[in-house]
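ok new one. same drill as before - structure tokens go in, u give me an amino acid for every spot. 209 of them this time. try not to just spam alanines like last time pls lmao
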């Protein structure tokens, strides 16, 4: 595992109506995909995914070739981001990241995606050693996979939470304070983990093993 990819399309689609079965078949043919966790936005019903890849090169090919064609076929704008999976291993293991071998404490009820408009290169310059102990005290948090933007060093994370309520509380109340301390703009997104279980299991998501 060398890279993570985050995707999201600008469309509001109840997940049950999303063509995930057809998309999964196509995804399984793409070079280097190790697994995918589907994402379904809370309240806005956006559709996306969090992928792991065997190499940065295959991740780059995916975001420049396959995914734009998928979004084009659906007639919607899209967002893709690549993250360096190697540099965040220590920080992620400290947060019980499923992507780095930790066992599920319980099946998640929600995911939170965060991104902070900073450049932390190398990643060890990010204050993760100070942040992790605080994160572990947040209600309902199960795990975090740290993210570090390829080329940019943009820090962020994909978090698993026990409930949507705790995930929303984290995204709306806690995280803005963390970003304020860093004096940085930020993004938070909350996703329903339960509704994507079947689609994610089919793509070997580590959250549902």
């Amino acid at each position: 595992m060398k890279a993570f990819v985050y995707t999201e399309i600008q469309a509001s689609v109840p997940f049950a109506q999303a063509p995930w079965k057809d998309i999964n078949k196509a995804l399984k043919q793409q070079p280097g995909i190790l697994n995918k966790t589907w994402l379904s936005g809370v309240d806005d019903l956006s559709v996306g995914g969090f992928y792991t890849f065997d190499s940065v090169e295959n991740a780059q090919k995916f975001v420049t070739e396959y995914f734009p064609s998928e979004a084009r076929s659906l007639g919607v704008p899209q967002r893709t981001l690549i993250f360096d999976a190697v540099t965040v291993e220590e920080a992620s293991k400290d947060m019980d990241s499923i992507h780095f071998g930790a066992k599920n404490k319980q099946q998640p009820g929600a995911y939170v995606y965060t991104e902070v408009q900073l450049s932390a290169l190398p990643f060890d310059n990010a204050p993760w050693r100070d942040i992790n102990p605080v994160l572990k005290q947040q209600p309902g948090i199960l795990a975090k996979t740290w993210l570090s933007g390829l080329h940019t060093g943009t820090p962020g994370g994909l978090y698993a939470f026990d409930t949507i309520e705790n995930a929303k509380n984290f995204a709306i109340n806690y995280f803005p304070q963390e970003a304020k301390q860093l004096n940085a703009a930020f993004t938070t997104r909350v996703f329903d983990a339960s509704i994507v279980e079947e689609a994610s299991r089919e793509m070997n998501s580590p959250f549902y093993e």
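The longest strand covers residues 33-40. and btw Strands lie at 3-9, 33-40, 47-53, 78-84, 110-116, 141-148, 155-161, 186-192.
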